[in-house]
Amino acid sequence: MAQRSVKMSADFVQIAETESKAMCRSTGGQIEYWAQVGRVAEQNPDLSYPLIRDLLISLEQAKNGELTDYVFSDQD
After folding, report:
1. Which residues contact 26 (CB under 8 A, 6 or more apart)?
2. 12-50 burial: b if 16+ Cβ within 10 Å, else e
3. Please, are residues 53 and 33 in contact by the beta-carbon 8 Å criterion?
4. Which residue in 30, 52, 55 sits closest to 41, CA to CA?
5. What pLDDT does residue 2 have?
6. Alpha helices in the chain (DSSP H)
7. Per-domain residue ranges for the chain?
8. Segments of the chain with pLDDT less than 50
9. pLDDT value at position 76?
10. Cα 44 to Cα 38: distance, rounded to the nearest angstrom
């Protein structure tokens, strides 16, 4: 993974550190997560945060082979 230095305000980094602990992520991981969610939100402004979060989880599940086929119930 490529690494670059990026300047961020001390206040932003402090917020990321606090939230990263609550979410069991590294500070860098928290910032990457916010960036990923923000990128998807900018590309798809009609999607809600919960839907974006669920889509990102589903993509990771698919990468790990954790998905199962959806079975539709019979509607009589």
Report:
1. 20
2. eeeebeeebeeeeeebeebbebeeeeeebeeeeeeeeee
3. no
4. 52
5. 80
6. 10-22, 27-43, 49-63
7. 11-63
8. none
9. 60
10. 10
